[in-house]
Amino acid sequence: MSSVNAFFDDLQSKPKVVDPPQNEDIVDCESLNEANQATVKPNVTVSSNVRELLECPVCLNAMYPPIHQCSNGHTLCSGCKPRVHNRCPTCRNELGDIRCLALEKVAASLELPCKYQSFGCTGIYPYYGKLKHESQCSYRPYSCPYAGSECTIIGDVPHLVAHLKDDHKVDMHNGCTFNHRYVKSNPHEVENATWMLTVFGCFGQYFCLHFEAFQLGISPVYIAFLRFMGDDNEAKNYSYSLEVGGNGRKMIWQGVPRSIRDSHRKVRDSFDGLVIQRNMALFFSGGDRKELKLRVTGRIWKEQ
Known about the structure:
CATH class of the largest domain: Mainly Beta
CATH topology of the largest domain: Apoptosis, Tumor Necrosis Factor Receptor Associated Protein 2, Chain A
Organism: Hibiscus syriacus (Rose of Sharon)
Catalytic activity: S-ubiquitinyl-[E2 ubiquitin-conjugating enzyme]-L-cysteine + [acceptor protein]-L-lysine = [E2 ubiquitin-conjugating enzyme]-L-cysteine + N(6)-ubiquitinyl-[acceptor protein]-L-lysine
Number of strands: 16
CATH architecture of the largest domain: Sandwich
Structural class: alpha+beta
Keywords: Endosome, Metal-binding, Transferase, Ubl conjugation pathway, Zinc, Zinc-finger
Largest sheet: 6 strands, mixed
EC number: 2.3.2.27
Distance between the termini: 55 Å
Helix content: 10-25%
Protein name: RING-type E3 ubiquitin transferase
């Protein structure tokens, strides 16, 4: 890698050889001689010096074309250029429209491991294809599905199951049927959303049953839905039903559990579950309609 470092030392000492292109495509830089081109080959083991050169000094993220530079050779990403008001964040010189084609060419020659390598991904990807892969990588960690707080914990499914049990004190059940009771003394007030989460283990998988009250317009609405602790392609192998009733009436919902890749709010706001209006919920509760007493039952099954 010493030759690569020497190349970049030479690049920064002669930044004006890099002219702005006529379009946004990556083009070859004629200032690279054959010797330098020969040393920059795909290599999984990328030195920390090269990684630093490809890191934007403002946002600290990896840079992708167009990579901009000032007249002194300092670089930054296109997303941060407007943020610094066209001034180099390193030397304060005006940035202009100089593009660092040499650095773009070096980046195009690299192959790197997925950032989710520690979670089990063993793939090696071209620098410019790595970002797309990581956005879809099946090994990328899941976010905590608990909706009652802004929890920032991420991890694989076993880690999140233990986290829900130990840190959020979520009820854990084995089995594919459930009987969920929800009681609220004053159903006319939903100042803060009320969340209830139960985790069920069945078919060797884990499912999250959500039940919550939230404000829709001026009236509280109650919704129950199921999320699958895994990816969407696996979630489609299962179905579930929910039932709520009272006073000789009942409502039934049947659907497919949503993956926890979809946020709790996204699922809730799409009304993809059993939705109960307040008046109907109070009717099911019976009595003087001053206290909410709902019993939601259901089951999970695997599609053949």
